[in-house]
Amino acid sequence: MSSVSNHGVASASHADTDLPYPDDDVHGNVMRARVNLRKAVALFAEAKALLLRGGDHTEAVAAMGRASDAIGSSSYFLSVAMGKQGVGSGPNLRNLTP
Q1: What residue segments make up the domains of the chain, in order of their start?
Q2: Are 62 and 56 in contact (CB under 8 A)?
Q3: Which of 38, 50, 52, 75 could form a disulfide with 60 if both were Cys (CB 3.0 to 4.6 A apart)?
């Protein structure tokens, strides 16, 4: 498993998403990116609900922090997938998505 820190934010491994792909699999890394983006959207929705309820904002800030972590992991997995495809500048992501 790979373990990379994105400014001390997220540890990137396939344990984060429970997908049955090896770390060097392009499709698996694209899927991990998608799962982490979905996780981020859900966490931002949770933060919004917590803020709308009022009260202590600590939980909402924590949810936003976890969403930020998920976005960092997603970015990492997508960059790994692009690197595996030899994509430099101007990536054509349609070639990477399942």
Answers
A1: 24-85
A2: no
A3: 50
Is 28:21 a contact under the CB 8 Å cutoff?
Answer: yes
CB-CB contact of 77 with 96 (8 Å):
no
Cβ neighbour number for residue 12 with a 10 Å cutoff: 26
- Please spell the DSSP secondary structure of 24-74, one letter per residue: T-HHHHHHHHHHHHHHHHHHHHHHHHHHHH-S--HHHHHHHHHHHHHHHHH
Q: CB–CB of 78/30 below 8 Å?
A: yes
- For 41-73, what is each residue's pLDDT tens digit? 999 999 999 999 987 799 999 999 999 999 999
Distance CA 89, CA 94 (A): 15
Query: Which two structure tokens, joined as six digits, stand for 49?
Result: 């609900």
